[in-house]
Amino acid sequence: MIVLITGAAGFIGAFLTKRLLETTNDQIVGVDNLNDYYDVSLKEERLKMLSSFKNFVFVKGDISDKQFIDNLFKEYKFDVVINLAAQAGVRYSIDHPDAYIQSNIIGFYNILEACRYNLVKHLVYASSSSVYGGNTKVPFSTDDKVDNPVSLYAATKKSDELLAHAYSKLYNIPTTGLRFFTVYGPMGRPDMAYFSFANKLVKGETIEIFNYGNCKRDFTYVDDIVEGIVRVMQKPPVKKDGEDGLPIPPYKIYNIGNNKPENLLDFVNILSEELFRANVLPKDFDIKKHMKLVAMQKGDVPITYADTSDLERDFGYKPSTSLREGLRRFAEWYKTFYK
Ligand SMILES: NC(=O)c1ccc[n+]([C@@H]2O[C@H](COP(=O)([O-])OP(=O)(O)OC[C@H]3O[C@@H](n4cnc5c(N)ncnc54)[C@H](O)[C@@H]3O)[C@@H](O)[C@H]2O)c1
């Protein structure tokens, strides 16, 4: 197979690429614009990890550039496309809305158009738990109504699902959207809490715990997300006709989350214990002196909690890495990378 992975220098994209290169003979074409939303050296480091694989080609480019995408799809006959490139982050969308429309709407539209005119067997794309907005019913199910986004980021991800549905219906393109729940791990994203907390604590600074600690997150280890994508990409939604003789859209949505929300304060305790264990923080470091409880931020939600029963039913799989194990691997990587 020839597989396109957009966002290949990103956190999830790089680990997915590595996994496919290690376990299949697929040719992987990775695309990324290497933007500086966070430390570019991390993206370069991830690409270095992939550079020794002979079945990997990296092409620097922007998915919102239609000409670039059209040329790429002419050059390679992609069997499967995995769209992970996006402007991520909830808080950044308040001051930088353009980046979200450009990458998540125009970029995704270009990918859909390219799939329309080329015989792509399966388009898998990243959605997000943020589409559930302030949903109070837990766990979050893909059957829940998700019409109340509380950030522009969430609105663009929900829009991607709608665009994918229209293209599946109109052109019979098999598409699967994956709603990821707070993904963490080594070589992760410095804008996310676990990573920025580690950076601040190392410098002796104080970390802010939002909603006075009354937040719960379904933290999902990156390898578990990768395992989910690998299973899903091999099984496109089946094309079939309805009673009216017209195609039923080959369109699916799944949650991939740990299905075990953790309280933010417990999460900070485990993180600090693992940073002590890895000798990133000195043993006499008093975590309580470096924590400040603050109000909820715009765009944030009090809880995320994935109902993974569809994923279990269709793929016999659900994430299972414990927060302690995952944060241990993060802390060990952090030590080697930054110290
Ligand atoms: N990490 C999470 O917790 C999480 C949760 C839910 C959904 N997601 C989604 O999963 C996907 C991957 O997330 P990640 O955590 O690996 O983020 P990431 O920022 O590390 O990776 C995204 C990559 O896409 C690239 N990119 C952005 N815009 C682009 C464009 N227009 N053209 C080409 N490349 C572009 C970036 O340079 C980056 O390397 C994203 O779509 C994100 O919205 C992530």
How does this model look, in words?
The protein has one domain (2-185, 219-258, 305-320): NAD(P)-binding Rossmann-like Domain (Rossmann fold, 3-Layer(aba) Sandwich). Strands 3-2-1-4-5-6-13 form a seven-stranded parallel beta sheet, sandwiched between helices. Strands 7-10 form a two-stranded parallel ribbon. Strands 8-15 form a two-stranded parallel ribbon. It has helices at residues 11-23, 40-50, 66-75, 92-95, 97-117, 152-171, 193-202, 222-233, 264-277, 309-315, 323-338, and strands spanning 2-6, 27-32, 56-60, 80-83, 122-128, 175-180, 183-184, 207-209, 216-217, 220-221, 240-241, 247-248, 251-256, 262-263, 291-293. It is built from eleven helices and 15 strands. The chain binds nicotinamide-adenine-dinucleotide (NAD). The site of nicotinamide-adenine-dinucleotide has 29 residues, from helix 1, strand 2, helix 5 and strand 5.
Give the helix/strand layout.
Blueprint: E1 2-6, H1 11-23, E2 27-32, H2 40-50, E3 56-60, H3 66-75, E4 80-83, H4 92-95, H5 97-117, E5 122-128, H6 152-171, E6 175-180, E7 183-184, H7 193-202, E8 207-209, E9 216-217, E10 220-221, H8 222-233, E11 240-241, E12 247-248, E13 251-256, E14 262-263, H9 264-277, E15 291-293, H10 309-315, H11 323-338
Parallel strand pairs: 1-2, 1-4, 2-3, 4-5, 5-6, 6-13, 7-10, 8-15
Antiparallel strand pairs: 9-14, 11-12
Helix pairs in contact: 1-2, 1-8, 3-5, 5-6, 9-11
Bound molecules: nicotinamide-adenine-dinucleotide.
